[in-house]
Amino acid sequence: MADDARGAGGGDDESTATVLLAGAANLGIAIAKLVGGLISGSTAMLAEAAHSFADTLNQVFLMTALKRSKKPADALHPFGYGMERYFWSLLAAVGIFVLGAGYSIFEGVQAVLHPEQLGSLLVSYVVLGLAFILEGVSWLKAVRQLRGEAAARGRGFFEHLRITPDPTAKTVAFEDTAALIGLVLAAAGITLHHVTGQGFWDGGASIAIGLLLVAVAYALGQQNKRALIGEALPEAAQEAIRTTIVESPGIDSLVEMLTMRMSPHEVIVAARVDLDDTSTVEEIEKAAEEVERRVREEHPEVRHVFLDPTDDPGEADPPLRPEGQQ
């Protein structure tokens, strides 16, 4: 967790570069697919164009998420604007669902019910090949970033992909993975249409692309929903913070601890602790300050620590001795 916080600035810079590259690639791909789809008459190609235009809009959402989440805390938002990253990323997931999946499925059904003749197969293959290369470059950038983050935290790639609190690179990686699979589906649909003369293959590929995007949108939407309604740290990170608190001087036991992530790099910790019952008021204050100092030092992601001195229900409650009494 320390690495998460120490690398926050560099991580955001790399995320910005990943999103910008993905946005530029998607815009170029969308235009190429649109032209190729209009020339060839391929519904799957037009569905892929809609997918890429939706992805381009999503990069705008992700850039907005990166910029607005960095706004400093103010009187109305004392914990900052970190949650905005999850809000705009959620809109990106909705964009994938509505613009990408919705259009793809609609056009696919239309093509199955009313198949049309396809145009040049060569044009379709050239456009799909170019799109695959550009999407591949964007995908490699996102995967390289995620792999580097995973290595820095001592996690496996897929474990990091599942639990990373930063939705930006993850969204790009999911989008680009779906796009690469979609290109293969589009190529298969177009080829089978030409080989068999049956128009439903092209429409079926478009529907399959739409269903793929539904799955991607659902997965991303679930992650951002959990973050927006308040998600605790993973159990391993919570256990590390518990250990820090319990091992601090003046702490008898940790009665309860709650954590909540406010942004990819900011966490709130609230804990009920049983302090040494023989301590003076001044010693209790110093113990509380020491706990907060240790937690924030050993776990830099933690921005706010709220301690509630209380009695452990399982222990007796001897009277607090007056300050200065031996």
Strand order of the largest sheet: 1-2-3
What is the assembly state of the chains in this entry?
A: single chain
Helix share bin: 55-70%
Mean pLDDT: 84
Order of helices and strands: HHHHHHHHHEEHE
Draw up the topology in text:
Blueprint: H1 2-6, H2 8-40, H3 43-68, H4 84-113, H5 121-152, H6 157-163, H7 167-196, H8 200-228, H9 235-246, E1 251-263, E2 266-275, H10 281-298, E3 302-309
Parallel strand pairs: 2-3
Antiparallel strand pairs: 1-2
Helix pairs in contact: 2-3, 2-5, 2-7, 3-4, 3-7, 3-8, 4-7, 4-8, 5-6, 5-7, 7-8
Report on this model:
This protein has about 325 residues and is mainly alpha-helical. It is built from 10 helices and 3 strands; from the N terminus they run αααααααααββαβ. The protein has helices at about 1-5, 10-40, 45-70, 85-115, 120-150, 155-165, 165-195, 200-230, 235-245, 280-300; strands spanning about 250-265, 265-275, 300-310. It has a 3-stranded mixed sheet.
Keywords for this entry:
326 residues; mainly alpha; elongated; disordered C terminus
What's a quick, concise take on this entry?
By secondary structure, the protein is mainly alpha-helical.
